[in-house]
User: Which sequence fits this backbone?
């Protein structure tokens, strides 16, 4: 029964919510207007020819689409805006640099990337060779059986550090919402249950893969058969994982997709060269000279009499 | 919807990524696949369900017991399911599982792992290079 509910029904529902939810969010965000051009920059804007711009300026204050794209890629892979956030953290008295968020975030996200890449071995048959290679590279083999995956253990530490940051730093504690803690605790529950399952309460991984492959083939009877043979420990991890999938589009975790929509990051800083039209503006309809002249005939004639030129020269 | 030029490709890329395992497996024709494992008749050291999930822990226990406590009888392992006695050694497995390639390897390839034990330990499928 546990197998059917948490192994077959809930994963399908969760995946459907995830896909529909993310697409819905993308469309929802794409529908909202950007009234102003608001790229936050920290470099010299492109201006007159004699004002020099270094390579840093080009990517900190991008002018073309390609420069913007490079800035975006750096943001995604190096979290530069977290690193730049010095003003808030520099303690006025001691001048200690405390950009913990950047350090912990980068630790967590790269571990997550490695864990998720290694997890594809449960989904892909045959297992791609680079997935096997990554697993081999980061496994401490032979010291302990089952071999210890470095990223899988580090991710627990990284999540605890991120959480301690919210608990022990007074300013962060003050601005943390329940949902901030919840996201961290959910991820912690997932990674801890994953590690417990790997090192202590083992489950039959080949049946797990069989289950996932039959779910993908929509072969329900076979999936039910596999699902019933897997130990309950797996369903703690899998149910939490499914819950994460379903929760993802509607939570702060959706920043993974939101980064592409953030106007401060994805707009080139070409305010002076290109006009940014606010899409909220009512459609603009001008009037012709003739209509204008009709409307202010008396005044215009009066002005013209005193020797001023009122009629535009080219029409 | 604004910026359709960028948003629609983004959605397409997302959908392709979300369904990439399905596409990958469909192209490899391996949907719902499970390897054919050649099993001997009879009973394993412990019950087959337990072995499928825990055989690596068993081997670890045997390794520790044999190497650290071998003189005090650590080499003797009592099966807790069947109560039989086994000699704690990697070679014990080969008494019944006589071919590594159709048993251990089939399953390990399926889940994408390569235990390094056979760099040093003997196994029946070992190809001894002819001098
Ligand atoms: C919903 C799909 C998921 C499935 C089917 C799944 C399955 C598994 C399985 C079977 C293991 C045991 C690995 C082994 O014994 O070799 C495991 C471990 C683990 N899982 Fe997951 N998992 C899922 C989602 C996640 C997510 C979303 C995360 C991260 C947030 C995660 C983090 C971990 C970690 C850290 C381990 C510890 C071992 C390692 O590093 O590989 N899992 N998972």
Assistant:
């Amino acid at each position: 029964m546990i197998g059917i509910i948490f192994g077959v029904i809930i994963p399908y529902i969760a995946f459907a919510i995830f896909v529909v939810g993310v697409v819905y969010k993308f469309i929802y965000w794409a529908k909202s207007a950007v009234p102003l051009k608001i790229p936050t920059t920290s470099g010299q804007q492109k201006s007159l020819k004699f004002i020099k711009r270094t390579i840093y300026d080009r990517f900190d204050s991008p002018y073309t689409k390609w420069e913007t794209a490079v800035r975006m890629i750096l943001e995604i892979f190096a979290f530069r805006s977290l690193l730049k956030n010095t003003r808030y953290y520099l303690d006025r008295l001691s001048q200690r640099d405390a950009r913990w968020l950047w350090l912990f975030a980068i630790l967590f996200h790269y571990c997550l990337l490695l864990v998720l890449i290694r997890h594809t071995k449960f989904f892909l048959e045959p297992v791609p060779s680079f997935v096997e290679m990554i697993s081999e590279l980061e496994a401490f083999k032979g010291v302990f059986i089952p071999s210890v995956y470095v990223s899988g253990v580090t991710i627990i530490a990284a999540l605890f550090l991120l959480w301690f940051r919210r608990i022990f730093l007074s300013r962060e504690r003050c601005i943390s919402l329940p949902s901030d803690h919840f996201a961290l605790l959910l991820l912690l529950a997932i990674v801890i249950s994953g590690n417990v399952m790997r090192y202590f309460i083992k489950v039959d991984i080949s049946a797990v893969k069989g289950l996932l492959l039959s779910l993908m083939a929509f072969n329900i009877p076979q999936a039910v058969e596999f699902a019933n043979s897997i130990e309950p420990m797996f369903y703690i991890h899998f149910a939490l994982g499914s819950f994460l999938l379903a929760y993802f589009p509607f939570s702060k975790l959706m920043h993974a997709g939101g980064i592409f929509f953030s106007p401060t990051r994805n707009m080139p800083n070409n305010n002076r060269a290109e006009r940014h039209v606010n899409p909220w503006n009512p459609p603009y309809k001008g009037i012709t000279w003739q209509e204008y002249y009709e409307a202010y005939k008396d005044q215009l004639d009066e002005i013209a009499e005193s020797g001023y030129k009122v009629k535009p020269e080219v029409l | 919807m604004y910026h359709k030029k960028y948003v629609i490709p983004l959605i397409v890329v997302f959908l392709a990524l979300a369904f990439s395992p399905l596409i990958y497996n469909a192209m490899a024709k391996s949907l719902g696949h499970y390897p054919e494992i050649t099993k001997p008749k009879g009973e394993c050291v412990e019950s087959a369900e337990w072995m499928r999930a825990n055989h690596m822990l068993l081997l670890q226990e045997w390794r520790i017991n044999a190497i650290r406590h071998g003189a005090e009888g650590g080499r003797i392992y009592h099966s807790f399911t069947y109560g039989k006695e086994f000699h704690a050694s990697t070679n014990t497995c080969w008494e019944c599982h006589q071919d590594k390639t159709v048993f251990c390897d089939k399953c390990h390839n399926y889940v994408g792992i390569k235990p390094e034990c056979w760099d040093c330990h003997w196994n029946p499928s070992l190809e001894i290079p002819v001098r």
Remarks:
- Residues 2-287 of chain A form a domain with the Fumarate Reductase Cytochrome B subunit fold (CATH 1.20.950.20).
- The pocket of protoporphyrin IX containing FE is lined by residues A 112, 115, 118-119, 122, 149, 152, 155, 187, 190-191, 194-195, 197-198, 205, 208, 237-238, 241-242, 244 (CB under 6 Å).
- The mean pLDDT of chain A is 91.
